[in-house]
Automatic annotation (TrEMBL):
A Pfam cross-reference name: MafB19-deam
Active site: 66 (proton donor)
Enzyme class: hydrolase
Assembly and oligomerization: Homodimer.
Gene assigned in the entry: tadA
Gene3D superfamilies registered for this protein in UniProt: Cytidine Deaminase, domain 2
Family indicated by similarity: Belongs to the cytidine and deoxycytidylate deaminase family. ADAT2 subfamily.
Cofactor(s) annotated in UniProt: Zn(2+)
Signal peptide region: none
Designated name of the protein: tRNA-specific adenosine deaminase
Domain CMP/dCMP-type deaminase: 13-122
Iron recorded as keyword: no
């Protein structure tokens, strides 16, 4: 893991900085043929955990970017409770990841693109009228860039699948 640090904490500039870093991690996922989602856990403007989707590569349905980043951050802190941390992720976390985020006692969640189909944050508040307590949530940080990466990825994947069908 490359440790990155940025001087002034908790500004809009920081959110963009760390989301761009998460986007660079998403590019690693895409280069591996994974859905391009990246996540970074930050404490005191220092990266303590990073991850990108690795479910296909690891044959592991739990190998989401958020889970990998949280595991790494927990090892770094020698504690699963990440009470002073903020998680930056390029896509709204799913229900599994929201559960892990809540269990980690993370202080902040910042995500880029909303996920109307599988997003766990919006689902909990909308369908079950549950507030994700003690977590400061900021949405839509660089959302167009995050969304565009995902749209481009799935369009390319569909073109490749179509080309393979035509070959046969």
């Amino acid at each position: 893991m490359n440790i990155k640090t940025l001087p002034a904490p908790d500004s809009e500039l920081d959110h963009h900085y760390w989301m761009r870093h998460a986007l660079s991690l998403a590019e690693q996922a895409q280069a591996s043929g994974e859905v391009p989602i990246g996540a970074v856990v930050v404490v005191n403007n220092q990266s303590i955990g990073e991850g990108w989707n690795q479910s296909v590569m690891c044959h592991d349905p739990t190998a989401h970017a958020e889970i990998i980043a949280l595991r790494q951050a927990g090892r770094h802190q020698k504690n699963y409770r990440l009470v002073n941390a903020t998680l930056y992720v390029t896509l709204e976390p799913c229900m599994m990841c929201v559960g892990a985020i809540m269990h980690s006692r993370i202080r902040g969640l910042v995500y880029g693109a909303p996920d109307p189909k599988k997003g766990g944050v919006a689902f909990l508040t909308r369908m079950m009228n549950i507030q994700v307590k003690r977590i400061d949530i900021k949405t839509d940080v660089l959302s167009q860039t995050c969304s565009r990466m995902l749209v481009d990825f799935f369009q390319q994947r569909r073109r490749e699948q179509k080309a393979q069908v035509l070959k046969k």
